[in-house]
Amino acid sequence: xxxxxxxxxxxxxxxxxxxxxxxxxxxxxxxxxxxxxxxxxxxxxxxxxxxxxxxxxxxxxxxxxxxxxxxxxxxxxxxxxxxxxxxxxxxxxxxxxxxxxxxxxxxxxxxxxxxxxxxxxxxxxxxxxxxxxxxxxxxxxxxxxxxxxxxxx
Length: 153
Description:
By secondary structure, the chain is mainly alpha-helical. It has eight helices and two strands. The protein has a two-stranded antiparallel sheet with strand order 1-2. The relative contact order is 0.08.
């Protein structure tokens, strides 16, 4: 390679936006919040991994253990779901851990365990209310509407 070609390559490399270097300079030096569950200590990341955020939205209605396992792996490691399930974790307990963890990743101390449980229960109550309207609500919606008749008697 000629000197002119080397100079051109060096100039091009210096014009490249280097996000690796930028993010390295911007990286926070604090450690994530620790939590203890079933005798094991986990350390949350200092911000939510993109993989977790994307999967949380995509899989919010999924009950497939493989989907949940992938989502949890980015926060707690690949074996967390299986270990917790083997220890008898309930779906409510998992929900409370997720509410607490997502809140405390970015801002340690943002939510207590009791507050996470309350928030989880409120969300579940609201979701249950939307999914199954009570009898009076169903009647009010259908009042005045008659089912279509086939015309046959």
